[in-house]
Amino acid sequence: MPNEIEISHITKGYGKLLAVKDLSLAVPRGTVFGLLGPNGAGKTTLVSILTTLLKPTSGTARVGGHDVVRDGAKIRSLIGVVPQDNNLDRYLTARENLILHAKMHRMGPSAYNPRIDELLSLMNLTDRQKDFPPKLSGGMQRRLVVARALVHDPRILFLDEPTTGLDPQAKRLIWDYFLSLKRDRTLFLTTHNMEEADFLCDQITIIDNGSPIASGTSAQLKDMAESSWFYEIGVHRGAEEYLRIFQRLPFIDCSSLQDGQIEVCLKKDGSLGALVEQIHPRDLKRISSRQPSLEDVFLKLTGRRLRQ
């Protein structure tokens, strides 16, 4: 299958700061590709380069067979973009926002009106199509931004944190719709939502500080964490102090504090008993084991959580 997106040694610098560092990857046509990383990792910068909003400092990238520097107009005709922010025109109604986008892509009323009706229904916005964006909730605005990106039926979709601010039901509806598109289209998703990447993506690259640190399918990435045992430990008091104690133990691969609960991964030769010995019996609330997640992979590779 041919590649729809090809990136070769892309670097983007702002003075001494390198937002993207010598990054190379390829996305086959008809797949959902996920770029996973914490805030500030370079995800949005890379999307801005691929959607022709920024020029790279060095390296090359092609989208739909076209160079991002030389063929900007052609690339923009092929792509739809869900940006990180809800950048709607606040002086146009919900429907007018979609009509404006359709006209910018040279669609006529006979083509865009039924398409807009379909998307408003899909996003559960039909009854609010005459409202202006400030009258809509944040979740409704987000759904309208997604609808806008789909109006002209683009061949390639760039989705920068597309479901931020959506409730679980709306999120799942949009996920299912994205999956229905992938046979004929290519989706490039950036997210720090591990569940979203796990559900949607055929291939995932994890980046940190502008550089890739791991690539593969969700299952392949999770296999990277199979060399450890993962436990969640609840204590009645002193969680931060116990975390510091655990971090000094030689058989602890990684550890963190999440919502008052200590999460640790033990090396395969580590001993749960030796870990429990560090906890005063009156402080121990519970211990449970679990399967590794994409979050665990990132934590193991970097020592930080994706949301930190």
Could you walk me through the main structural features you see in this protein, from its secondary elements to its overall organization?
With 308 residues, the protein is of the alpha/beta class. It folds into 2 domains: 3-215, P-loop containing nucleotide triphosphate hydrolases (Rossmann fold, 3-Layer(aba) Sandwich), CATH 3.40.50; 227-291, Alpha-Beta Plaits. The protein is 33% helix and 30% strand. Strands 6-7-8-3-9-10 form a 6-stranded mixed β-sheet, sandwiched between helices. The relative contact order is 0.14.
The N- and C-terminal alpha carbons lie at a distance of 37 Å
Biggest beta-sheet profile: 6 strands, mixed
CATH superfamily of the largest domain: P-loop containing nucleotide triphosphate hydrolases
The percentage helix is: 25-40%
> How would you classify the helix and strand content by structural class?
alpha/beta
- Report the average pLDDT across residues: 89
* Order of helical and strand elements: EEEHEEHEHHHEHEHEEHEHEEHEH
What is the number of independent domains?
Answer: 2
The CATH class of the largest domain is identified as: Alpha Beta
CATH second-level architecture of the largest domain: 3-Layer(aba) Sandwich
Count of DSSP-assigned helices:
11
